[in-house]
Amino acid sequence: MADPAELTELSATELRAALGARDISAVEAVTAHLDRIERGSAVNAMVTIDADGALRRAARLDAEGPDPRLPLFGIPVGIKDTHDTAGLRTTYGSIRHAEHVPERDAAHVRRMRDAGAIVIGKTNVPEYAAGSHSVNRVFGATRNPYALDRSAGGSSGGAAAALAARQVALADGSDMGGSLRNPASFCNVVGLRPSPGVVPEAEATNLLTPLTTAGPMGRTVEDVALLLSVIGAPDPRTPIAAPALGAAPAAADLRGLRVAWAPTLGGQSPLAADVAAVLEEAVARFAEQGARVEIACPDLAGAADAFLTLRAAEFEIAWGDQLDAHPEDFNDRLTWNIEQGRTLTGRDIMRAQERQTTLMREAARFFERFDVLLAPAATVAPFPVEWEYPRTVAGEAQAHYLDWMRAATTITMLGVPALSVPAGFTAEALPVGLQMVGPFGSDHRLLGIAQAFEALTGFARHTPLLPADSRHWSNEAR
Fold first, then answer.
1. Active-site residue flag, 80
2. The pairing of beta strand 431-437 with beta strand 418-425
3. Which of 11, 155, 229, 420 is catalytic?
4. What is the residue extent of each domain of the chain?
5. CA atoms within a 13 Å half-sphere pointing along the CA-CB vector of 144
6. What homologous superfamily does CATH list for 4-477?
7. Which residues of the chain have pLDDT under 50?
8. Contact between 107 and 89 (Cβ < 8 Å)
């Protein structure tokens, strides 16, 4: 039998190759990851575990034998607790849904299962995925595997932490204002916000304002590309779905690459000094490889305000009636955000949509001059887990729980693909991610650029130094 510790260190693509060659069994792979979940329970990343179901599915796959048509054959995965899983509790991080068990899978979850993935369990989220700190009244806070007294980010924080702690080999997530990119940055993993429509939202109620999209997370760029190849395909139920991406991406040649570097996104977003220092070194690697690096940024005027308007409008539509009927079911931040939506007029919303259109056109013009935009994925390093959110960034007060997320929310408004890739660590050994942004539809090209950078740095291979059994972890033990 393979060494369980060694199995969980394999990337998803390495694990798939070993499963395909029958060097290991799916049961061994699942057992090893379940052991990591148990030993790393203090991370609180995996909140509903289906050990028996996962082992039964693994045994069936082993009996059937590796199928080359199943790209995720035998790979243990975590599913975000806002994405429905048939027969497996899905709470949305809300006390209102603490015992909710859906009858059907979300569309992309079904694709993952059909591709051979084994769902081990659900990954933690903030309440209704609102915010970039994964804490709720059902399961509590997810802790950062690199420093258990720090946040894992959010809203896909449980997914990122589970990947970093080697509890799953792949995970899904979703992103409205940074929910794939922020936790990836905090946990030294890779999170891709695809071009809107690449991962179809078959159950979406609003297809015309592409703020939210599901997307892949993994420990390496290659793993993220693997999962994207499964969940990123057109769906006839989503008329605006993007066309199929085609062949898998290859590492890009950085020589001559036209790179824009925007540390504060043209003054739209403050940046903590410790994060800036790490990212300056990361950007320098591009220049060393022959890329043409220039300080430049699209015109993002009005992006933050338009995002807040459209988000508040969506929140009010989604949960306004529930807030009226059950106000105790919503935390203060969600209540505030829903109430903001109630102050909006139709003119406010149309103006925000007009601004979004202008921003998307600005992005198209910008990427005629540049191949990739580099920016922070998060404005700060992982903050103390007890905080709601950072109240200041680089000495600038943050007005509310969304304010510190502007490095991601403003990019959302461009309607383009963006990812966070491990870029290094602060002096306190806290992870920092580099955000890479490309033109609409350039998802594979962007992954190729990220893969070339990843190969230069090796940060993706770093493993958090968790105790052998973190159930007994304390601040004093750090």
1. yes
2. antiparallel
3. 155
4. 4-477
5. 30
6. Amidase signature (AS) domain (3.90.1300.10)
7. 472-478
8. no
